[in-house]
């Protein structure tokens, strides 16, 4: 729930502000809250501004990595307002913040990171004996969904809190839903969680 992903941000998701009160109520039901935070260098490989003549949301083959990359508007640059959590999101000193996307050559959608740029989230879940997670936030079809997929892959019981997340686009939302269902991720609404 960073400013750049909320409405009005450089990569604002429609309906993002309406889920903040739901997330704030939901978080009070848990003793451990982990926040994922994109924290990019300004020359990050995924920023369309760093690829002359390319269009936003197009795919581009990256020579340095040999991978295809969706090109995004510049977002969540370390230390900027856009990278900060939205002012209305309840954040407590006890929350654990996992920063991702620090390596400018790799785009890490999952809060666990990617193959070449891992975060310490997997280690955190092991150290805290976490075997079940509930995912929510922005955006369902990218960061939230990929975090859920990786968590399921490493054997955690995973719940997607459907009313506490929003997608970038309907097409990618449908694709992500299929992947999540195939991975055994369970769908739940915040009011069902006691």
Automatic annotation (TrEMBL):
Residues 1-189 form the Isochorismatase-like domain. Pathway: Cofactor biosynthesis; nicotinate biosynthesis; nicotinate from nicotinamide: step 1/1. Its EC number is 3.5.1.19. PANTHER family: LD05707P, PYRAZINAMIDASE/NICOTINAMIDASE. Belongs to the isochorismatase family. The keyword Transmembrane does not apply. Keywords: Hydrolase, Metal-binding, Pyridine nucleotide biosynthesis. Coiled coil: none annotated. GO terms for biological process: pyridine nucleotide biosynthetic process. It comes from the Eukaryota. Gene3D superfamilies: Isochorismatase-like (3.40.50.850). This is nicotinamidase. One of its GO terms (molecular function) is metal ion binding.
